[in-house]
Amino acid sequence: MRGPRFSGLLRGLGIDPKRYWLLMDLFRTLTERREAMNQLGRDGVSLKILTVLYGFISILISLGMVAGEAHLRTYLLAFLGLTAFVLVSLLIPEISNSLINPVEGLILAHQPINGATYTGAKLSHLVRILLYLVPAVNLVPALAGMALREARWYYPLEHMLAAILFALMLALVGCGIFGWLVRFVPAPRLRAAGQVAEFLPMLGLFSFSYIGKFLNSLRLPGWFTGHWQLQAGLGVAVCGLAVSGLRSLSGDYLVRVSSIVQGRPAAKPVPKGFRPSPGAAGASRLFRAFFGGQASRAAFEYVRRMMVREYQFRRALVSLLPMCILLLAGLPAALKVSPFSGHFSRMHFTPHVFGFLLFSICPALPYGRDAKGVWVFLVAPGRALGPFARGVHAALWLPIVIVPHLALLAVAAWKWGWLDACLFTGFSAALVSLYLGLELLLINGVPFSKQLRSAAGAFMLPLMMVGALAAGAMVALQYFLVFPSRIGVAAAIAVFAGAAFLVTRRSLKSLEDTMRFDLGVVSSEASLIYKEVD
Amino acid sequence: MGQPILKLEKVIFAYGGTEVLHEISFSLNQGEVVGLLGPNGAGKSTTIKIIAGILSPASGVVSVTGLGLPDRAVEVKQRIGYVPETAGLFESLTGQEFLELVGRLHDIDEDTLQIRIREMLETFGLSSDRSSRLDTYSKGMRQKVLLSSALLHNPDLILLDEPLSGLDVNAAILVKDLIAALAAAGKTILYSSHVLDVVERVCDRVMIIHQGNLIANASPEALKASTGQSTLEDVFRHLTQSARVDPSVARIIESLRS
């Protein structure tokens, strides 16, 4: 690969071969030494686990479709769809992370490296993801497709070729879109725009059936497929978009992306007459009464704000956004049937969806971009960790459990009447509180104090599948055993609320111990922060 | 003084709609050591980052040794040595590995590179730590690595943004002597610092930026004479209209008592 032929190819693309290989060696070294852990394509272990996992899922689907004697066209489209689903969920976040992450930009921006060389080195690992995942999803199904009635002897070749071309197209379009973002979106808004670009394709895939219905209602597909010129034009437009986006990355990309953190407006004078907000003292008193004083409030404010502002945390959870949006969109229809009506209501899923949401949030909570800020907790009094843990719990419980359930109570009371609304909301809130109590055990350190692992978000999709199965089982149990009787629901509320109280108390003690241990490890490794001047 | 090495003409920089630099213009000649002063947030580091090719100005002309930015950015960066304000380093690399990376990115011949790295590390007293990872280095040691990496490729223009930050007394003296020696060797140095007495001692000329405007550009003696002040610190306070600190200190002590 380092020979003259490949170097010639690189030069043709505007890439300086010598600096390209220097950067490739640098990125490999950083990954080996666990400094750059947020790139899946360079984390061989996580990539191999995902390959096996998706390979297994695709074999199951393939066997099911072959046994069901699916049409060849449907079979191929199903696996192209699965390829799109896997790549959109893994490749798009990876492209975003590679292109809109200015960490290396901060160190390398003033070095003599052109944009094409830097982008080329940054994106090379995406090829590795394609090389692993496209065969994982398609190789066995391509061979198994031979068993279908309409398949010819060369079907595996057709299938693999279609999958590879489709995957390459997706990757190029993904890079192209981010190239356009880097070119046209102002630096301060680039990260937010990147996150929107990450979750929109996923939202599109989740709501595919709605989009299909909408297009059918417009009679667009028939009109479109009847005019090959339109199809060719669309293809050319997509290619043009991808190419021009990629060209944007080869210019002053390194400078633009490092501007995300380099530029800052000049210091503004503090307005005269500045006073703390009048509600601050009242909020403090409330916290002292319910959650344990100023240390608790510190944790509440810290976690609440960081959950919104911490870029890596938001990225880790971006794949949940489409699910939340679709659930909210489906809420009016779900509210039409009361869970006490004797008919099945989709509202039965509510507590388990919240439980899954918290299940995704809690393990992601200890990781963040500014992990070195952990020194703040090292110099805080040790006795503050207990109330601090309670504040962390409050930061999750109040906005994710209590506030949505209060809103739900108001809407449900309007639809079903106060009694049913109170019973259902109480049941759901108690069960979610129990889930949260258990899931606090998944927080393995001080919030936002550790460097993010590469595959933290990559396993979200398989987890969602397992979570959906578990939720289905729980829903069946509550539908058949609890909800036939209102007294049964009231008893379940008491049981779940009591269990939530006891479990949460135990989990908070455990969280306090975990944070203490975590800080102990950090303080014994002073180099994780920095050594003061000798 | 020699030929102009650096030229800025009517440079404007805006960040998120806020204009940070307002039509800054100045030039640096070969062999000059020029101090860049200003309060926090005045635009000193932004100016240096624009010259280093890290930030692109909204308008105006920036040229280094006659090469315009951003069009000739790669060539300009080969002629610049930059010590950033915050020490961004790849923490898992060793000091030796980081310097090798920078040297190779600048395409320095390998034999020459190894000789220069050895000289730098010995001069800065880092030889025994050359194989230690940078995350084990102290703040001062990291600063020495940054200084070494900025000089490794023998640049024409050296941009120093708070270079003495974290250095011990001996290393600070070494850097001050080094600046004088580099200037004598024909290097041009733009030196941003808050340590005014050092700036006064090592710089031929001082520029003061205040709220994004260049409000002074002359030798320390000329500035003192024109403002009627006895020290550079007084000149700085006079020109930036900084309030006396005594009342502020009293307010802090009073708030601690409440």
Give the topology.
The complex is a heterodimer of chains A (534) and B (258).
Chain A: H1 4-12, H2 17-32, H3 44-67, H4 72-99, H5 103-108, H6 115-144, H7 155-184, H8 187-206, H9 208-218, H10 220-225, H11 228-249, H12 253-262, H13 279-290, H14 294-309, H15 311-316, H16 320-334, H17 350-364, H18 375-378, H19 385-416, H20 418-439, H21 460-482, H22 486-524
Helix pairs in contact in A: 2-6, 3-4, 3-6, 4-6, 4-7, 4-8, 6-7, 7-8, 7-11, 8-12, 8-16, 14-19, 17-20, 17-21, 19-20, 19-22, 20-22
Chain B: E1 4-15, E2 18-29, E3 33-37, H1 44-51, E4 59-64, E5 67-69, H2 73-78, E6 80-83, H3 95-105, H4 110-123, H5 139-151, E7 157-161, H6 169-184, E8 188-192, H7 196-202, E9 205-210, E10 213-218, H8 220-227, H9 232-240, H10 246-257
Parallel strand pairs in B: 3-8, 3-9, 6-7, 7-8
Antiparallel strand pairs in B: 1-2, 1-4, 4-5, 9-10
Helix pairs in contact in B: 3-4, 8-9
Which radius of gyration of chain A do the C-alpha atoms yield? 26 Å
Whole-number total of structural domains of chain B: 2
The CATH superfamily of the largest domain in chain B is P-loop containing nucleotide triphosphate hydrolases
Q: Pairing-aware structural class of the strands and helices of chain B?
A: alpha/beta
The greatest inter-chain interface is formed by: A-B, 40 and 52 residues
Mean pLDDT of chain A: 80
User: What distance lies between the first and last C-alpha atoms of chain A, to the nearest angstrom?
Assistant: 45 Å
Uncertain runs of chain A are 526-534
Q: Which structural category do the helix and sheet elements of chain A fall into?
A: mainly alpha
What's the architecture of the largest domain in chain B, going by CATH? 3-Layer(aba) Sandwich
What is the CATH third-level topology name of the largest domain in chain B? Rossmann fold
Percent in strands of chain B: 15-25%
CATH class of the largest domain in chain B: Alpha Beta
